From TrEMBL:
This is Response regulator. It comes from the Bacteria. One of its GO terms (biological process) is phosphorelay signal transduction system. Gene3D superfamilies: 3.40.50.2300. It holds the Pfam family Response_reg. It comes from Pseudaquabacterium pictum.
Amino acid sequence: MPKTILIVDDSSSLRTVVKIALGRAGYDVLEAGDGKEGLTQLDKAGKVHLIVSDVNMPNMDGISFVTEVKKHPRHRFTPVIMLTTEGAEGKKEQGRAAGAKAWITKPFNPPQLLDAVSKLILP
């Protein structure tokens, strides 16, 4: 049974690129345009095995989103990869403090993302 990954990013073109890369690797992909929509998707979805989230988004940013995700017992241990243009060490520390397990800076290459995903998703 394929693993499910939630992509949370306000850029529909980026979500499409990530969805194609993950889909080709055999993952099921859910999408959300911001943190609030991401929380709604998590509530509706069954098991989500990994989350890929941007940092800068309208309505609810990625750091706040991860903080909220980690409050839910069902998603507390779901690994999160931040995929963002933010490269500042302070932001990375905020992400780690919120519960993010990896940080990939845009622009990214799909093999780099797939490598991080494969390390964080349990077989």
